[in-house]
TrEMBL record:
GO cellular component: cytosol
Keywords, comma-separated and alphabetical: Hydrolase
Gene3D superfamilies: 1.10.150.520, HAD superfamily/HAD-like
UniProt-recorded Gene Ontology molecular function terms: phosphoglycolate phosphatase activity
Protein name per Swiss-Prot or TrEMBL: Hydrolase
Pfam families per the UniProt record, alphabetical: Hydrolase
Lineage top rank: taxon: Bacteria
Entry's Gene Ontology BP terms: DNA repair
Database matches in InterPro entries: HAD-like_hydrolase_sf, HAD-like_sf, HAD-SF_hydro_IA, HAD_sf
Species assigned in the record: Cycloclasticus pugetii
């Protein structure tokens, strides 16, 4: 587990780490295809068939997380649609207690997300979690997603954290591998980012269902 006495900086992902990924999964797998189907006058299944290759082509790229990109590509006001469905935005179990414990410990806590600014702002307003962070950073600020080393080099120039005394928590294994490659000492994977799905099996890193399992005492 984590020796919290050695930690100076805590880097936390947002969706699937702090917030329930159930909202985003439902939004992109049901809400967007349904809206697209109605707009195009096609069936839901046909909409899925047309959207899947578009989504697949952008996986791991910054466009994957860019609401402006998808609004233009699909002819849908994605931000408006997110605002209309925001009541489904929820925190994962133990999120607030964990953040409170980190804040009380005096360690630097930074939200590090691939989320687009519009989505980030909406979720921070909805949850009120903004108060717990010393800094909030979106990959869109740098032009590289967290999956790429270019992001970590640019981010490190900004934050200047000691990699040997830093913990990174995320639900994305590709992001965690990038953080590991960059040299961050403590890597933690969230195995239950979506409350509606069973926990995933993760072998490569310290893996926990929720932040409660690693909360400093």
């Amino acid at each position: 587990m984590i020796n919290w006495s050695e930690i100076e900086t805590v880097l936390l992902d947002m969706d699937g780490t702090l917030l329930d990924l159930r909202f985003d999964n439902h939004f992109w797998q049901r809400v967007v295809p349904d809206y697209f189907a109605n707009k195009e006058g096609i069936s839901f299944d046909e909409a899925i068939k047309q959207l899947e290759p578009l989504f697949k082509a952008q996986e791991g790229l910054l466009n994957w997380y860019c609401l402006d990109y998808w609004s233009e590509a699909l002819g849908i006001d994605i931000v408006k649609l997110k605002v209309e469905t925001q009541e489904h935005i929820k925190e994962l179990p133990h999120t607030r207690d964990f953040l409170g414990a980190i804040k009380a410990s005096g360690k630097r806590c930074v939200l590090v997300t691939n989320a687009h600014a519009e989505s980030l702002n909406l979720k921070m307003q909805k949850t009120g979690l903004v108060e717990f962070f010393d800094a909030i950073v979106s990959a869109h600020d740098f032009g590289y997603p967290k999956e790429q080393q270019s992001f970590w080099h640019a981010f490190h120039q900004l934050e200047q954290f000691d990699k040997s005394k830093t913990v990174m928590v995320d639900d994305s294994l590709s992001v965690l591998k990038a953080a590991d490659t960059f040299g961050i000492q403590y890597i933690v994977a969230i195995t239950k980012p979506d409350s509606a799905e069973p926990p995933r099996i993760v072998h490569d890193y310290l893996a926990v269902e929720s932040l409660g399992a690693i909360q400093p005492k």
